[in-house]
Amino acid sequence: MKGLKYITMAGVFLLAGSIVSAQTVTVSPEGEVSTIAEGLKLTQPYDTLVIKQGTYLEYNLKVDKPITILGEGRPVIDGEKKGFILVITGDDVTVKGLEVRNTSTSFMEDYAGILVEKTKNTVIEDNRLIDNFFGIYLAETDKAVVRNNYLTASGERETSSGNGIHLWYSKDTKIEDNYVRGHRDGLYFEFVDGAYITNNLSEENIRYGIHFMYSDNCSYRENTFRDNGGGVAVMYTSNVEIIGNRFEDNWGSSAYGMLLKEINRSRIENNHFENNSVALYIEATSRNEVKGNTFRQNGWAVKLMANSTDNVFSENNFIANSFEVSTNSRRNFNEFTGNYWSQYEGYDLDRDGVGDVPHHPVRLFTILVEKQPQSLLLLRSLLIDILDAAEKVMPALTPETLIDTKPQMDQLQ
Predict the structure, then answer these.
(1) Which carries the bigger pLDDT value, residue 254 or residue 316?
(2) DSSP 146-184
(3) Mean pLDDT across the chain, nearest whole number?
(4) Which of the chain's termini has less CB crowding within 10 Å, N or C?
(5) Which among 164, 202, 209, 168 has a CA at the least distance from the CA of 183?
(6) When comparing pLDDT for 371 and 143, which is higher?
(7) Alpha carbons 367 and 398: distance in angstroms, whole number
(8) What phi and psi values does residue 374 have, to the nearest 5 degrees?
(9) How far apart (Å, rounded) are the C-alpha atoms in residues 91 and 61?
(10) Strand 187-190 relative to strand 165-168: parallel, antiparallel, unpaired?
């Protein structure tokens, strides 16, 4: 054991010595080292590669050792649509301050501005990625950080566009303070575990602002997803925290603020849904807590399918939505309690802040619209008001047990 201790200490000193002796290699268009490829060859582990301002027409740049790459004056690496641009396969790599443009586009290959593959402790920070097929692509990575990057593309069709920030089989990744626009999906996660995604803005993407599947134990906090073609899709996942996000202006026949499909044991709390065709669509989803959210001025606030069970909706605000809740069954296996409903017409005689009669959030007209969409033209008519009032008194088509027995009289904070 004593000998092992000495060997371990020697290894530590050797590593420390290599870091202390690290050098800086400088690349500039008119310098002795004028290409990034040449600069990468000259660097040793733990060196710093400084890239001076200018435009570098290079692609398929391999980074296979622990180094720091720093751009001064936002140098541009233009791949001229010939392949990947930066390909990182070494651990402990930092890339900061670059502008990366124009990867190839392909139906067979996932060309990316920055590809990170089978690495640990990669940091991608303060970069601009413009008009790339995929922006930042992480595959089989551990403890990567993607922070404060700006990604835009000019994709027009899903088939010819890639994703902005793409994660596949990655663990313990931090995605923070990024802006993503114009890609197929702004952020995409598949087989990801333990990711922390916060304070990102994903807007005007062709399909989803964020799309994640089979990605357990992740936390999504304080992000904004706005005006994306399909909104946000969360599927086949457990133990997710979706807290404090904004889902806005996602309009269209198949657009959702957020779609939940086969999501279990998760928390959807303190989010804001506004101006979406459907704010929250829930299918085959169980044992989730939907609490403290605000649903404001959406077409449908919640579409709850009959195969969803044991979800609890509490302390939410439902304000000025055309339809508060819709479902495709007369049976209810979920709980609504203590929510504020702007369409509640009850009273509070004992003045305890809780309505004295239950609120029925599913309107008869909701069911009619599902069966005959053209009837939506009658939304504000007196006839529909009379039908809804009659259904509340003698329910015939709406689920009798889908009620809030403790509707709040005042909007919740």
Answers:
(1) 316
(2) EES-EEE----SGGG---SEEEES-BS-EEES-EEESSS
(3) 90
(4) N
(5) 164
(6) 143
(7) 8
(8) -65, -20
(9) 16
(10) parallel
Instruction: Identify the pLDDT of residue 289.
Output: 98
- Helix, strand, coil percentages in the chain from 3-state DSSP, rounded to 5: 15, 40, 50
pLDDT at 383: 61
Task: Using alpha carbons, select from 239, 251, 247, 255 the residue that is nearest to residue 271.
Answer: 247
Contact 407/383 with Cβ under 8 angstroms? no
Residue 366 pLDDT exceeds 90: no
Q: Specify the higher pLDDT residue, 409 or 6.
A: 409
Query: Is residue 101 within 8 Å of residue 74, measured between CB atoms?
Result: no
The percentage of the chain sitting over the pLDDT mark of 70, rounded to a whole number, equals: 86
**Residue 52 near residue 74 (C-beta atoms within 8 A):** no
Residue 153 CB-density burial (10 A; 0-12 exposed, 13-18 middle, 19+ buried) = buried
Query: Residue 143 and residue 59: Cα distance in Å, rounded?
Result: 26
Q: Is there a contact between 271 and 245 (Cβ–Cβ < 8 Å)? A: yes
Q: Quick one: pLDDT at residue 328?
A: 85
Count the Cβ atoms, other than its own, within 10 Å of residue 9. Answer: 10
Q: Give CA–CA dist 330/4, Å, rounded.
A: 70
Task: Check residue 329 and give its pLDDT.
Answer: 81
| Radius of gyration from C-alpha coordinates of the chain | 26
**Is residue 77 within 8 Å of residue 27, measured between CB atoms?**
no
Q: At what angle do helices 364-371 and 382-393 cross, to 10 degrees?
A: 120
